[in-house]
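Try this one yourself first.
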């Protein structure tokens, strides 16, 4: 039986590529020099797209694939997939929730601790001889016992809050409604009120057109010169220009960021800032989680073409 033909938007590790190629004929969009010509050539043959969270599938790509049935996303976030185009044509969409939740929460908490305690600078202090030459590393602000606001108490936000409870942080959260699985945490509906309350603001909400720049100037400035923003969701949830201005002028104390507008080509203004921790969008980047994500991408493709229910549908 001939293999189902699919479009592969970005590279996967070898342990995913090998089984994907065994089960499907995968046309590698990311290797094409002339992407438009490549889409014109393979688009009509393609019945599914395998993509990654940050790459998604835009309207032009979807339009170039008239026989498309399914988009399988390697990532929990599917904001880069044009859902309206999918809805209009009855194209199904799957993502990889749950399998990455704990790793993303781990990295977010690690970023908060590393930035608060200046661990990156402290490492350099040891390596470059400053410890011996200049003495003790400059003091930093305490973490435990402070107030954290979790913006978006979904799966990842919940795991962040659960971890931070272990640091005796006072936990408040914003979401569209109070969550019955968070009885001991304070519900603050308005993100601005949450920011006024918090020392640390975790941005953990799924990105959509509705959440674009939900962290705006008022929210950023409400956190203030001692406040910190940690973003492990999507850059679009924060007004990045305002964030940069606030970090440069000291209106916001610091930030720890795993996601950027236009990544991996982030705004060079970030590189000059001493008060940010910059991470290369790798919150889900452990062997264990990435293997589980890859398997789920393939399992959804396989289920669809075998006529079975999708494992993790979003559409
Ligand atoms: C991945 C992500 O880094 O889950 C998401 O939404 O952005 C990440 O887990 C990405 O999709 C891997 O390419």
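Now uncover the answer:
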């Amino acid at each position: 039986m001939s293999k189902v033909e699919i479009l592969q938007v970005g590279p996967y590790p070898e342990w995913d590529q090998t089984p994907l190629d065994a089960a499907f004929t995968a046309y590698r969009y990311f290797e094409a020099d002339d992407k438009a010509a490549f889409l014109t050539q393979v688009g009509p043959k393609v019945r599914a797209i395998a993509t990654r969270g940050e790459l998604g599938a835009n309207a032009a790509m979807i339009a170039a694939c008239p026989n498309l049935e399914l988009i399988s996303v390697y990532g929990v976030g599917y904001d880069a997939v044009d859902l309206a185009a999918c809805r209009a044509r009855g194209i199904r969409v799957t993502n990889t929730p749950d399998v990455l939740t704990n790793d993303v929460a781990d990295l977010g908490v690690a970023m908060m601790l590393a930035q608060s305690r200046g661990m990156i600078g402290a490492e350099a202090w040891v390596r470059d001889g400053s410890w011996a030459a200049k003495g003790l590393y400059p003091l930093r602000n305490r973490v435990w016992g402070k107030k954290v606001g979790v913006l978006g108490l979904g799966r990842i936000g919940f795991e962040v809050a659960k971890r931070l409870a272990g640091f005796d942080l006072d936990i408040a959260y914003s979401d569209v409604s109070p969550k019955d699985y968070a009885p001991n945490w304070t519900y603050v509906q308005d993100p601005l009120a949450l920011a006024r309350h918090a020392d640390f603001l975790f941005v953990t909400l799924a990105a959509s057109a509705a959440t674009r720049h939900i962290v705006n100037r008022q929210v950023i400035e409400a956190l203030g010169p001692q406040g910190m923003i940690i973003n492990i969701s999507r850059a679009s949830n924060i007004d990045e220009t305002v964030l940069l201005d606030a970090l440069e002028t000291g209106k916001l104390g610091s930030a720890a960021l795993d996601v950027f507008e236009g990544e991996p080509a982030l705004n060079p203004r970030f590189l000059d800032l001493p008060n940010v921790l910059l991470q290369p969008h790798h919150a889900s980047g452990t062997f264990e989680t990435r293997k589980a994500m890859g398997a789920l991408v393939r399992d959804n493709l396989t289920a669809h073409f075998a006529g079975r229910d999708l494992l993790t549908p979003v559409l």
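Discussion: The radius of gyration is 21 Å. Residues 101-278 form a domain with the Rossmann fold fold (CATH 3.40.50.720).
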